[in-house]
Fold these 2 entries.
Entry 1:
Amino acid sequence: MRNYFEDWKNESVDRQRLVVEESFILDVTEEIHAQMEQLGVGRAQLAERMGKSKAYVSQLLSGSRNMTLRSLADISFALELDAPKVVFERADAPASNGDWQHSDNVVRMSNYHARGGSIEVIESSNDDGCWRAAL
Amino acid sequence: MKLSIKGPRLTVRFVEDDDSMENWNKLPSWKEATAIWQEKDRCKDTQIEKAYVQLHIKMQRMANGARLRNPDHFNTEADLPDKKKFYAIKQGKMRAYGWFSNAEKGVFIVSHFAYKKGRKLDPEDTKRVVDNWKVIERGGL
């Protein structure tokens, strides 16, 4: 079956870039929510812990305000988690479990283009709370 | 329904898909919702393109079996006639209203797209979802 979204995306580099950006934003904001849910921390509480307004936190988590690396680290700190560690890998390196992995606070980005730029988000969670997502 | 978004856990389908469309961003309700958005907020084409991508990857994420936990991304909206709920996949003020099908397991049906004008769910959107639900769930796909 033809993948119309892939066809649409592959019509321009700008679109390919947009899909990567938005997928990454979605993955990060969803993962923050997963952690908040697991820890029983609401937005108001997170805002209080960060010393920010609830509106600010809502904008960050909705993606309407750009999240900086600093604000991501602040969120991690407020949730009493280590900041996510980012591992960049070569674009042509084989991806064993996907392009974008997060396990034990490690975020890996690799091999998106080598896999033809296909975006497929696969997420799984296991008993120890680790999860893996692939773009 | 050729515009399905398929994943290992779920298939997302669109009520308006009559097999004549090449992409769900050509569906009538999406065109209508984006026209309202442009009229109200004078949004740019790039913003519409971004909303299209954001909604698509959210639906793909659902299809792949991942929950959308962020209430800015997915929310329970109102009751269906069988007392189950219908939902909104959200991106800014754009909505994709739909429900998990009883008629066909593992299928999420998108009733229609809408631009949310006010703070509350528009009764017109509820009516449209319920009408579509009756056709699909009681009449079969």
Entry 2:
Amino acid sequence: MDRRELLTRVYEPHRSSPGAARYTNAVLRTQDNKEVRFYDDLIRGKQVVVNFMYAECHGSCPLVTQTLKQTYREFKDRMGKDLFFYSITTKPEEDTPASLKHYAEMRNADLPGWYFLTGDPFDIKTIRFRLFNMDHPGFDVDLNMHTGWLRILNDARNYWGMAQAFATQKNILNRIRWADMPKSHAEWVVENRKIQIAIEQDVKKYGYRRDI
Amino acid sequence: MPKNEANNRPEIDNKTEGTISRRSVLKIGAAAGAAGVLAPSMLTHTEALGFQTIPEPGVCASAVSPNHHPFVDEFTAPFPADDHPLNPQPTEFPNLGAGEAPRAAHQRWSQFTPAHFTYELEARPGLHTFHSDFLPTYIWGFNGQYPAPTCLQKYGKPTIVRFRNSLPDDSTPAVPEITVHLHNGHHGSESDGFAGDWFTNPFWKDNLYPNCYAGLDVFGGNGDPKEKMGTFWFHDHRAEHTQTSNIMGLNGMFIVYDETDPGHENPSAGSLQLPGYYGVTDFPMILTDKRFCATDPVAGRTEMIVTAGGTDKWIINGKIQPKLTVRKRKYRFRILNTGTTKTWNLTLIGADANGNAKVQPITVIATDANFLEHPIVIDDTPANAGNSNADTAPITPGGLRVSVAERYDIIIDFNQYAAGTKLYLKENGVAAGQKVGFPSPDPLPTGLRIEDVVMQFNVVAREPWFPKDTPPIPATLCTYPTLPPVNNNWEWQFVLVSGVFRVKRPGDAVGCVFDPDHPAHCILRGTTEEWLLNNNIASGWTHPVHIHFEEFRTVGRFTNGVPQIPFVPPLMSGRKDVSRLEPGQGTLLRMQFRDYNGRYLIHCHNMAHEDNFMMVRWDICPDTNSLNACIADQQICENELKAKWRLDEEVA
């Protein structure tokens, strides 16, 4: 992974993207000790999934990482191209790039398009608040409150979505796909037919027949 | 199909290059400030609005809204929606070829069609002026309007509403994808605006609203008239983005009349003769709160900020601090909180003999869409304290608390006030009040701050041409159906675990987050269940819990698992579809599941919470085979989660 790869941009930002004003352009470090700017290098024009973790976390963090690994497999062809995962440490004081590298390798998660990030504690706290702020002190000040969340962004659409590591895999995949670039009308016509077939299969499976 | 015409418009422009096209004329018109003012002979209503080019909003980051002068704008009811034939005609099966979104076939199609009323409500951008001091604001509205046009309906006259998505991919944080829920209609799940069934521009979907009473299976005909409801509302229910859609303005009222409540005040068989002329003596009161950017005279806009936090303007029927001239007689107001998160605490304020602010009585006649059996007068005196809808025993005096999606129909009798009296609707829930910036043009009662006022009532004598006062409010408004025996007990716990809002079922280890693909609870059609909605995990969060499909009856209230005495506060004892759970509280309720099959929802109606997964799918199954198929899947979510936890243990 080099800086050029990080700078690969598939789309332009949406014209209404809040850009660095919301996401900040804080300089973070990847597990390979590369410097990256949060908005310009990681968010701008991209579809990304962001979560917070720390290497020594034995609560929900490994579960989240496992979930992301499973998700990664589904999106393998897109990862590092137009879809990226960012796992940001909530304990930057403890988590150096090296320890994050170790964490990622231990879990076979040191993969293209998936960055484990550390940086200045103030910057990271700012990013965490910008992405997960619920305007509720009981929620926002508790580190553990944000570890199960996956923030799904598509800067090229200014899409702002979310999933939970605790959702079903299908649900997580769908929510990430909901953030994909808009389909064309023709693509939606095809997609709607697929959805219709799925609906009819469900009605049949559960016996929700239409007659009284 | 109109949308195809829209798509073809650039070509029309090309063809007329060199001449002034119709589109160009309209652009000129819009540039001259004449947006929306078009000669009727030139274009039909729909065409005219379809041609309007509404520029997108900019981005601003104002911490506070601009100031406004109080009591400038008139408080009015949203216009009634006009019904017209639909083209193409509605069909039982989805008309995918003509652009309808996917859905299951309509249930009870042969029984409820052809529909008496058909409407088309198109979700599209529009401009709305929230206050005369402001310039127009970019909104998303049904037919481009906020609040949406009101559908005025009658029991026994089924309706099809074609919801069309014409929303642009624009500069708002909202997502141009919709699924519209009629809260709280008794209809098939394919017309219920299921959160996972959203569709995009330019598709549309027909929702069949039978306007029937619940109880079709048992009572036949149009169901059990004792199940009558009145004040419904419709809103976008897109999973994950309900909040932003509703901030943008995608909601409106839907009122259903019947013989007891016929929409007029003339004596007629069975009529309660309540104030009943829509927009004259019977008004929706649609409440929301917003924050605005500074007015930009160059852009000609006062944009709103799409946020639920830091709101500092209170909007009622689309206006900030409006005024209403009322005659000395009774009026009905249908209070609705469209959220997206705020709970209102309302009182009516007048002045006592010394000019001090004094809470005035209001009479609650309906909770959510349902008449109370007996009207309840509330104010802040101990005599009427027991009738306040406080949360737990002991019930303390207070205002009318209205959490998101709740409706309260109230009657105010202005006849008791002298002409010239001014009364104020006050919001008690926010210490700082709203941002005003200018003093009240009229002296306020001592102790009332202008920042706390939602709107003003000016009492005048009744002119001869204005409808005469209605008779006294009847002591009995309706008789409730008998509560049927319980077939099954169930519990939903509204919890926050590991930072995730979720709903736990009995026996769940952790509880699932919203899964649109699998049922979490399966119910045999025709049965009655007793559900305990529980918010007893010390969380500090209030959850106004909404159950789709049918009204429930509250049979008990709990605090930290302890039954409360008196069991149910009077305003919670009626038929309802939203149950407010303050921290530590629980509600035991009884509800019937009948007449239709399919997928429905229970969720917290704080839109921030429902978007963050505090929502569950439950299904109604027509027979035991169906029930078994459903039950086979109801553990999928939980089992997958358990597997994840095991995986977690291995890894850790």
